Amino acid sequence: MLVDVDGLPALCVNLNCDYTYEAATAEITNQTYDSSTKVIVVTGTSLPTTGVTLSFGGVTCANSTPSSAYTATEITCTLKNAPRAGDHKAEIRDSKGLIPFASGVADINIALVITSVTPDVANALGGDILTIVGTGFPLDINTVKVSLKYILTDEEAALLTDEEAALLTDE
């Protein structure tokens, strides 16, 4: 039998097993993120200082082993990479499972940042390969949808036939 509590699996090798659930004593009361340094700071009560893993926005900490940056009231870590875009809460796990948040702790919003798109001029007939550079992209590239829109000048729009205008209409 396989049991999963707070994201922590337990396995029973026979059909007669006893389990004891221990309610969390630790609690996260606040979280902050600095995008320029990729540092996340989590504050709380009775936070674990050993056997800790912390991730945020799908990215784990570079300093994943406990250090002086892990105390019972604050855990500070530098992420290996920028987190993916979206609203996130830090995920701290120890040997007992996922550390819960106090009520009212807000998610941190990470914006998708596009720093460049090349080429900056494309062939009107299509077929160009675009390179989009930035941070916050999702882990699964199959979830990305890119839409481009060309805005016609009044002079260009006046030259279009009805059939050409119909091809440019949004779906």
Provide a compact summary of the structure.
By secondary structure, this protein is mainly β.
How would you classify the helix and strand content by structural class?
Answer: mainly beta
Q: Remind me, CATH topology of the largest domain?
A: Immunoglobulin-like
Strand/helix succession: EEEEEEEEEEEEEHH
Shape: elongated
The description of the largest β-sheet is:
4 strands, antiparallel
Strand content: 25-35%
Specify the CATH class of the largest domain.
Mainly Beta
Count of DSSP H/I helices: 2
Q: Rg to the nearest angstrom?
A: 24 Å
On the 0-100 scale, what is the average pLDDT?
Answer: 83
What share of the residues lie within helices?
Answer: under 10%
List the helices and strands and how they pair.
Elements: E1 2-5, E2 8-11, E3 27-34, E4 39-45, E5 53-56, E6 59-60, E7 74-78, E8 86-88, E9 91-94, E10 97-98, E11 108-110, E12 113-118, E13 131-135, H1 154-159, H2 162-167
Antiparallel strand pairs: 1-2, 3-4, 4-7, 5-6, 5-9, 8-11, 9-10, 12-13
